[in-house]
Automatic annotation (TrEMBL):
Official protein name in the record: SPFH domain / Band 7 family protein
Organism the protein comes from: Sporotomaculum syntrophicum
Keyword check for Transmembrane: yes
Family matches, as SMART domains: PHB (SM00244)
Coiled-coil intervals, chain numbering: none
Membrane-spanning residues: 7-28, 34-54
Band domain mapped to chain residues: 49-213
Keyword Membrane: yes
């Protein structure tokens, strides 16, 4: 199916013609021309049955005895084909908030995920005839696409490479929108935007994954601390040797580096020990 424009006439002109025919028919019935009056009255009733009102951002899909005749998109009052069935289709932009779904990511970890989909109908004929209920179709396909996209990525990557649901929300939203558009084009629906609104580990593994994230953060912080401690120890020894403050042999250098590394890397503040010499 493909939307097409149907025949239509200005509704105010049609109302005037219908009113004129009705008045003429009544006059003929009163004057004694019963057959002519009845025929004109039937014609006026048929013309009146074709008058319809279209609201802004709305379409009327016309069928005539089971055949699609076209759609009316222009707002206002119009006269279309008499005795036709007219189905209203909203062309307004709408939101669909999916339920919070529990799915497994690519690593098999259960996660909770939800999304919002912004869409509108661009082909009224497809929305009415190609699917049974396009609103329900949007809901089901949105949840199906969300599940499919969620299973292609891990919730989070603890390495630098690769996309993740948490770290690459823009890329995930873009892929979700493209997959939704491919699924919903059959219903004449255009996907304007798709965004994740909820993303979290499932409750049964949330505490374990939190510990893993904390451990990864601690390891990363320790790496930075060790890199800084090595640099500071090198700078200290190099500056002492350059300025000739003290002469250090290899054994004293190792001891000094060891003390500096312990003082810098330790979780607790270093407790200095002052050597006051022997009392005897």
């Amino acid at each position: 199916m493909k939307e097409k424009k149907t025949w239509m006439l200005n509704g105010f002109l049609a109302l005037a013609i219908t009113l004129l025919l009705t008045i003429t028919a009544v006059f003929l019935l009163v004057s004694g021309s019963i057959i002519t009056g009845i025929l004109l009255l039937i014609v006026s009733i048929l013309l009146f049955s074709g008058i319809t009102v279209v609201q802004p951002n709305q379409a009327k899909v016309l069928t005539f005895f089971g055949r699609y005749m076209g759609s009316v998109r222009d707002s206002g009052i119009w006269m279309t084909l008499p005795l036709s069935t007219r189905k209203k289709v909203s062309l307004r932009v709408r939101n669909f908030n999916s339920k919070t779904l529990k799915v497994n990511d690519v690593d098999g970890n259960p996660v909770e995920i939800a999304a919002v989909v912004v869409f509108k109908v661009v082909d009224s004929a497809r929305a009415v005839f190609d699917v049974d209920d396009y609103e329900e179709f949007v809901e089901i396909q949105s949840e199906t696409a969300l599940r499919h996209v969620a299973t292609k990525y891990p919730y989070d990557t603890f390495e630098e490479e690769g996309y993740s649901l948490r770290g690459n929300s823009e890329e995930v939203a873009g892929e979700l929108g493209r997959e939704l558009q491919a699924r919903l084009s059959v219903a004449g629906v255009e996907v304007m935007e798709a965004r994740l609104t909820h993303l979290a580990y499932a409750t049964e593994i949330a505490s374990a994954m939190l510990q893993r994230q904390q451990a990864a953060a601690i390891v990363a912080a320790r790496q930075k601390i060790v890199e800084g401690a090595v640099g500071m120890a090198q700078m200290a020894i190099a500056q002492l040797q350059q300025e000739g403050i003290v002469e250090l042999d290899e054994e004293r250098k190792v001891a000094m580096i060891n003390n500096l590394m312990v003082a810098i890397v330790s979780d607790r503040a270093a407790q200095p020990v002052i050597n006051t010499g022997s009392l005897y």
